[in-house]
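Lab meeting prep.
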Amino acid sequence: TNGGVWEIEGRSIRPRRSPLRAPVNDISWDYEGTVATAHEDGTARLWKSDGRPKASVPALEGAGACTAVAWWNGQLLRAFDNGEVRLDGHTGGIVFRGHQGRVNSIATGGAGGVLATAGADGTVRLWHPDQSPRPMLPGHGEGQPMWAVSWSPDG
């Protein structure tokens, strides 16, 4: 759905700014208060915690929609319709490939900095960005689409 910034005051909720132009697929906060949103038009947008725009990360040619966003060590992770997950902030970035089709969810915070991704191909994959852009485990749970993935608080 289209998103926007809303103010809550007492029992009333009202829009603070006009809704975003592209539908929002995902949202993630970093520890410093930056909010990232993933958009159907392929872009990711960064926002200050007060709702003011901070930056826009352009769409990638041929990648399709930006389907999920997450933070890893202060760097933005973006997932796409084409099955790729990209870690921005490195020279040239790091690209994780393994899903066949849309990546629906990214989770960070696993033991040792491991990332988990869930895909429309029915797989959950584990990755370690510092070691290799190859999955640590092949897909698990093949069959129906995996919509979300999360880590438990104890890793």
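Slide two material, second protein:
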Amino acid sequence: VPARPAKARAAAAAAIRNCCLAAGSDGTLGELLADQALLRSVLKPVAGLAHPDDRSKASPVKDDDCDVRTALAEAVLALAATEEGRAALWSVQAPELLRLAYEDEEDPDVCTALEHAATLFLEGAGSVEEVEEEEGEEGGGKAAPAGAGWANVEA
């Protein structure tokens, strides 16, 4: 909710991230993934859009707080770490939205989460921990090789 103070938005985003991280172990993953409106709501503050076609309707409006964008990008990463999560995210065109978000993102923490998510979408498997280990070996950061990022994700 953009009208809320930055601290409240960051706390809410962190809570959403934590819910997504715990969803696989607490049995709520299916409920989270079944709600496409919820998935779009998580993507919009990161990408500025709820759907790639929104680009023609209005200017994208990302959340201006990098802590909010980072937490929500990490939430998407947590969901993308599961096969069911990737399928649900593909259904709301998350890879394309996140690619668009990455194109003009300047915050390194947000970029790192987006790069890790891209790796999961490209490889179609793995866990968040495996991706972080692989990215750590490659160096991570905005200058990651095209093969490890959004250049190869097709929606």
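Talking points for slide two:
The CA atoms of residues 44 and 50 lie 5 Å apart.
The helical segments are 6-26, 29-34, 36-47, 66-80, 83-91, 94-104, 108-123, 128-138.
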